[in-house]
Amino acid sequence: MRRWGVWGAAILVAGVLGHATTWWAVTERVLGGIGPFVQAAALAGWRLEGGPARRASWPSISVVIPGARAAGHGVRWEAETVRLSVPLMAPGSLRIEPSGAQSVQAEGAAPVPFRAERLEVRAALDGMGPGEAEAERITGAGWGVQRADLRWDGPAVTASATGVRGTDTEGALAGGRARLVATPGWPAEDLAAWQRAGGRVLVEGAGAWGAAAATLEGEAALDARLEPVGRGRLAIERPGPAVDALVAAGAIGPGAATAMRGVIGLLAPTGGAVTVPVTVADGRLNVSGFGVARLPWSR
Fold it and tell me: What's the Rg (C-alpha) of the chain?
């Protein structure tokens, strides 16, 4: 019996030492890969910053970075803490898990603080190739998202969200998706060069808010002032509730709502589906000629 106890203790010690060796080797790989990952992100137009990286407490095979920040393409994001890890079965990939207080800010707009119960980004360790992000139960000041997903592969980006809610609007976004494809690829910091090369983004989207549902097809680009411009078609099912949703969200006033209902009555006198033009110009989003929102990053 004593011999079995000695063997059991030996196996336990070997297992602990083996895990400790693996923990050190993998975390060393993460620490060594931070620099190349930051450099690869810089080539793609993103500036990554943060406090000094440190190993998480054993046995967690990860590295923790406090005060992480990312900026690029007119967007800035901050997180209280970010945990980095390399999955043992996928040594070429990097898992990024932000936590604590976070915020996102579009250029020219105020920061939007939020927290997420779970937020995970998976990307290649060298910053190249496809990647994905998943988030659950995101909450901000007066709004929330039950789940959001983002996928990217070269010039194509696909995003979806469910359970979107706001305290100032009624109902929730039962489901929404969007797909963006950039030609000739997403711009880095030199937006002017991308604009001169004829850069454009093809846009597809669909969503439902309460009783309203819509699909969108169009394209967007930058004008000579590097301001966003675009046009497309918006197909709206049950357009009456769609106008009610815009009023409830504060996007349009009662006068514009009355005029919009008049246009809808002409286009769809029986109350069925209607297709209307959508444009982006002079920093505003216009639907059938009515301004419904101002772009926060417009000058």
Answer: 24
